[in-house]
Design goal:
The chain has 9 helices and 11 strands. Helices cover about 40% and strands about 20% of the residues. Helix 1 crosses helix 2. The strands form 3 sheets. Strands 3, 4, 5, 6, 9, 10 and 11 form a 7-stranded mixed β-sheet that branches. It folds into 2 domains: about 80 residues, Arc Repressor Mutant, subunit A; about 200 residues, D-Maltodextrin-Binding Protein, domain 2. The chain is an alpha/beta fold. Belongs to the LysR transcriptional regulatory family. GO terms for molecular function: DNA binding; DNA-binding transcription factor activity.
């Protein structure tokens, strides 16, 4: 077995001072104890490190070699201990984050930036998936954490409220509603409404449809595969799309987001493992909750 790092620390103090009395005072230990520790180190290494006389202490060739390389070795070992502590506290490592395209315009980038500001040693890898697949990815361990819009509970995950996103309607410039500053759902129902198939995100689909049916409205629903259409080209049919305000960031100039007068909100949640998880997930949750509180996301 190799000597303890403590013995190397003691030896380096003696090698620096070349005096046991001064080295012992520097280390805050008794001189006889220090002498015994150095003899133990020499015994474990099987070599003599110091030449001792009543007048002086000097380094042998072996002692000089250890004195030359010892500081870097001790520093490297200390860095290894610190790396282990940081990783154990979740302050370093890799976070695998999954989120839908709707969170990619504002919510996810802001949380990733906030995490980097607080814990620059954490690396984030991302994967863009529909919200139901985000839930599946976290539940299966493929992702460490996720962000999802109107998610349903699933096996192996828990949901942590993150954001109440004010709803509005996206319309093309040619749409009659474009001239309005705000719009109610009755006006929206007077024109086709584009919505993803229910199978793509059942809970979000039911939420949007329920907004109309609870008011006795029956819009013409146009189901389209809209999950990865950044240009919102599906609105060329003359329809509109109900989305949260954060999802409307970075819209093309040809499109406008108009807030609803009905003050409805779509729920955005963190998707987290229900069981054991990497410590880095705790740091992400901590940062996300702080960011949500500071920016009134759950008002």
């Amino acid at each position: 077995m190799e000597p303890e790092s403590r013995l190397l620390h003691y030896f380096l103090a003696v090698a620096d001072e070349l005096n046991f009395t001064r080295a012992a005072a520097r280390l805050h230990i008794a001189q006889p104890s220090l002498s015994a520790q150095i003899r133990a180190l020499e015994s474990q290494l099987g070599v003599q490190l110091l030449r001792r006389s009543t007048r002086a202490v000097s380094l042998t060739e072996a002692g000089q070699a250890l004195a030359d390389r010892g500081p870097a070795a001790l520093s490297g070992l200390q860095q290894a201990w610190e790396a282990a502590r940081y990783a154990g506290r979740g302050e370093t490592g890799t976070l695998r984050l999954a989120y839908p395209l709707s969170a990619g315009h504002d919510t996810a980038p802001r949380l990733v930036e906030a995490l980097h500001d607080s814990y620059p040693s954490i690396t984030v890898t991302t994967e863009v998936l529909p919200s139901p697949q985000v839930v599946q990815a976290v539940g299966s361990g493929r992702a460490d954490a996720g962000i999802a819009r109107a998610p349903e509970p699933g096996d192996g995950i828990r949901l942590d409220p993150l954001r109440r996103d004010p709803l509005g309607v996206i319309v093309p410039d040619s749409h009659p509603l474009t001239r309005r500053d705000v719009v109610d759902l009755a006006a929206v129902a007077g024109f086709p409404v584009v919505l993803h198939p229910r199978s793509a995100n059942p809970s979000h689909y039911d939420f949007i449809v329920g907004l109309f049916t609870t008011r006795g409205l029956q819009p013409d629903l146009l189901e389209r595969d809209i999950a990865f259409d950044l240009s919102h080209g599906f609105l060329t049919c003359g329809g509109s799309e109900l989305v949260g305000r954060s999802s409307a960031e970075g819209l093309p100039r040809s499109l406008t987001w108009i807030p609803l007068t009905d003050e409805e909100y779509v729920a955005v949640a963190l998707v987290l493992p229900a069981g054991p998880h990497a410590p880095v997930v705790d740091r992400f949750v901590q940062v996300a909750r702080t960011h949500a509180a500071d920016n009134d996301w759950l008002r």
